[in-house]
């Protein structure tokens, strides 16, 4: 009699990437990777234990001296080859992101492109890492600065951008002479593994870039490892705060980006068709699973009724389905658990008295009944004490609040504990200038709904959206992954005798 086949044994397990090769786990724990469009389990992913993390860190530590000693120009040439390979394989990476996260392939192409821009920035590291020099600061005394790498750095990244967010971190870290251990979200491991293969093909030495997978045990092992000098994180605010506090106790440098509740303010003089298009794209793109998604619309003055009508009209036309299907504009949510959590917020908003203009809870995609879908959802007349306003929902749910004046709108936005991104829609330069000056948010858009900075600027919020002193990529990234050293030199044989007073050099 034939024994039944254990499907788990037929499902491939994603390994680690250590010393430029795939490495099997010593841990016996693992998790499932699903295709959100179908609900099917496609892979398993190893969950690293402390021993596995140490193996990766030791590989990075061993590679650090030689990589630190590699001239910045040579490091940049490796980056240039990596850039070319990433550009050549962008569609493959987008498909991997779509299969594991659920976003549409065109949306994934856009996000990978934004990540590639950080590699382009990192290619300029010979200039970006230059220090400063002052001649004759005192008699025959010169002074110069160096920006030197830290050592082994680690990144912990979320599920919603399987390629882009890791690319915010490791290209700048590695270009500046550090080595790196990446722990991507266990829900979306494949993009990171593929990028590691491409980096090896570009000529990156063994041990400089490593990838491990896992849950809290893996994270804590990185946070507490004595050889990890810096941690970069993107995720929810409670975890960001935990990582910040743990790293601070352990004497590590840390940048931890947390959650968001991004407001878009619409003034009566705004082009409402343009604003509605922008809000629909920013609120429902990637099923709302973006830290820069617009989740709150602040309608000022009498603009509310017309704006809500236009948003509803446009949102109802959004095609929902599997991310790899032509014509689909919004895919599923990442997991069944997350889909159900977002549904519970819609339930709560209805009970709390908000006006439910569009209800996405009954969305079914024919042929994909087991996928993790929600339709576009729109609430009007939302109040600040409602959970759909206070909490980061991270789904295709847009909440509209109404205020009387721009001053009221600014006070509302500034009272929010999150301060990642915000936007204003207006034809008034004076109103826009007041908004960008008075608003207490890290990234601001004027008639731009998702003001994600280019790679040569830095990405980061304020308040509970960022823990640490540095944002990611741009010059903040260079500063985070290096530390300054000031050297003062005198080349003279004149004997002046011992000086016990504070030297003034002049």
Count of all domains: 2
Provide mean pLDDT, rounded.
95
Q: What does the radius of gyration come to? A: 25 Å
Main beta-sheet annotation: 7 strands, mixed
Quickly give the structural class. Answer: alpha/beta
Distance between the termini: 94 Å
Shape: globular
Tell how many strands the DSSP assignment holds.
Answer: 23
CATH C-level label of the largest domain: Alpha Beta
Residue stretches low in confidence (pLDDT < 50, at least 5 long) are none
Task: Describe the fold and architecture.
By secondary structure, this protein is of the alpha/beta class. The chain folds into 2 domains: 274 residues, Aldehyde Dehydrogenase, Chain A, domain 1 (3-Layer(aba) Sandwich), CATH 3.40.605; 185 residues, Aldehyde Dehydrogenase, Chain A, domain 2, CATH 3.40.309. The chain has 17 helices and 23 strands. A 7-stranded mixed sheet has the order 15-16-17-14-13-19-20, with helices on both faces. Helix 11 crosses helix 12. It is globular. The mean pLDDT is 95.
């Amino acid at each position: 009699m034939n024994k039944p086949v254990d499907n788990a044994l037929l499902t491939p397990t994603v390994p680690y990437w250590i010393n430029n090769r795939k490495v099997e786990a010593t841990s016996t724990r693992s998790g499932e990777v699903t295709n959100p469009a179908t609900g099917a389990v496609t892979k398993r992913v190893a969950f690293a234990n402390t021993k596995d993390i140490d193996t990766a860190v030791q590989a990075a530590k061993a590679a650090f001296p030689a990589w630190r000693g590699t001239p910045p120009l040579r490091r940049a040439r490796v980056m240039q080859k990596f850039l070319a390979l990433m550009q050549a394989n962008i569609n493959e990476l987008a498909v991997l992101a779509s299969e594991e996260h659920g976003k549409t392939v065109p949306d994934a192409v856009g996000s990978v492109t934004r990540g590639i821009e950080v590699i382009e920035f990192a290619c300029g590291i010979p200039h970006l890492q230059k220090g400063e020099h002052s001649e004759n600061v005192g008699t025959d005394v010169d002074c110069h600065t160096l920006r030197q790498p830290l050592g082994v750095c680690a990144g912990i990244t979320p599920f919603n951008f399987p390629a882009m967010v890791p690319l915010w971190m490791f290209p700048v870290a590695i270009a500046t002479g550090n080595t790196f251990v990446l722990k991507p979200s266990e829900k979306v491991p494949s993009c990171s593994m593929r990028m590691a293969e491409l980096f090896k093909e570009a000529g990156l030495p063994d041990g400089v870039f490593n990838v491990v997978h896992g849950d809290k045990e893996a994270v804590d092992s990185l946070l507490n490892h004595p050889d990890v000098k810096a941690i970069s994180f993107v995720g929810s605010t409670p975890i960001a705060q935990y990582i910040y506090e743990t790293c601070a106790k352990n004497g590590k440098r840390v940048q931890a980006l947390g959650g968001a509740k991004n407001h878009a303010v619409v003034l009566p003089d705004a082009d409402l068709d343009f604003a509605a298009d922008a809000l629909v794209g920013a609120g429902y793109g990637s099923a709302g699973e973006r830290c820069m998604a617009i989740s709150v619309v602040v309608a000022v003055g009498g603009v509310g009724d017309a704006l809500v009508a236009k948003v509803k009209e446009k949102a109802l036309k959004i095609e929902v389905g599997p991310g790899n299907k032509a014509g689909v504009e919004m895919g599923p949510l990442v997991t069944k658990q997350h889909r159900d959590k977002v549904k519970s917020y819609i339930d709560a908003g209805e009970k709390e008295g908000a006006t439910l203009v569009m209800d996405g809870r009954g969305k079914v995609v024919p042929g994909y009944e087991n996928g993790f879908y929600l339709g576009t959802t729109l609430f009007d007349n939302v109040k600040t004490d409602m959970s759909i306003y206070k909490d980061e929902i991270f789904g295709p749910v847009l909440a509209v609040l109404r205020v009387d004046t721009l001053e009221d709108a600014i006070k509302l936005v500034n009272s929010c504990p999150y301060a990642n991104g915000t936007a204003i829609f207006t034809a008034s330069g004076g109103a826009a200038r007041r908004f960008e000056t008075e608003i207490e948010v890290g990234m601001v858009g004027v008639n731009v709904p998702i003001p994600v900075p280019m790679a040569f600027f830095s990405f980061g919020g304020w308040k509970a959206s960022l823990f640490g002193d540095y944002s990611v990529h741009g010059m903040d990234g260079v500063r985070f992954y290096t530390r300054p050293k000031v050297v003062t030199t005198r080349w003279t044989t004149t004997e002046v005798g011992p000086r016990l007073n504070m030297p003034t050099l002049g």
